[in-house]
Input
Amino acid sequence: MKCKYFIVIVAAALCWANHADTAALGGRIVHAWRTNAQVGLRFETATGRSYQIQSSPGGRGQFWSDVLPSVSVTDSLTSVLVPTQAAIEFFRVLEFTNRVFWYDWKYCYETPFLSAWGLGSAQTAYTHTDRPYDWYIDQADTGAYANNNCGPASATMGIKWYRPTFSHTAADARNTYFREGGWWYTSDIINYLRLHSVPNTTSAFTGTNQLVGVLSQGNLVILCLNTAYLMPSAASEHRAGRFYSFASGHFLVVKGWRQVSGNLFFEVYDPNNWHATYADQTPKGRNRHLPAAELANAIANWWNYLIVIPPPGRGTGVVADPWLTPVDPDHIVHACGM
Output
């Protein structure tokens, strides 16, 4: 029987999942906490149904095992304790009385990670459009012209996000346009997405409120911006700000946003990584956070547009999103990035 389930990541201490639309998705995890060898999950869902908590310790959701007997829900809010062995663990809640199959990959980290990452102490909102598989690309691994491959890497990440079966590499993208090297233009990104039948819309950029709205609708955004307007980070373990010296035109992917201690950050996949890692071996370009005002200036002072990819199933034409101001990419000036 197909089942409906949630996923939440618990990383070493306290975390909670981003609220979803209960009516549309059938339920949501509203809180999670960790005490000793147990994790508490509190979820809100329909009443009068039975659920099974399952776990995939330290994995990617490929192997699941029962943790608790099925729970009969008589109230809309239910809390359960489940044992945990790993520092990072994935959970899902199977709903036995509904045949719809789904997962929710939205998650967030709270203290002490936010402070250690240089973001702040209290998170009030977090939304992102991640995937339960690896789609990040370090341009250091993109072939002979890696120095010029932020465009091919960002376009390939966008396609892998949209289509998990996509097997072409950023080196393949490089070999499609400017085979002998050189910076890609925003028009090359758009044409490469079209070549592989990935719907996309070019929109004028109107501000960070727009970017929050676009991401909250489940879209992915590719930007071409000026990294000189992104302030360098002084601390090696901070996840916010620019972590390299390059300061000019550059492509990257925006996949989420956070509100922490009153400050808005955008979560990005930045391919300009060159195997740089934090102490935990996480690539510094993966899930990097950029302050909203800096990102807005970086966009406005290079290429004041967004390339927006909708989630699969949304349609094949222009993205129908109230936050977008679509433009014809054939009638605008394009910019390049390294």
Remarks:
- The first helix runs from residue 22 to 25.
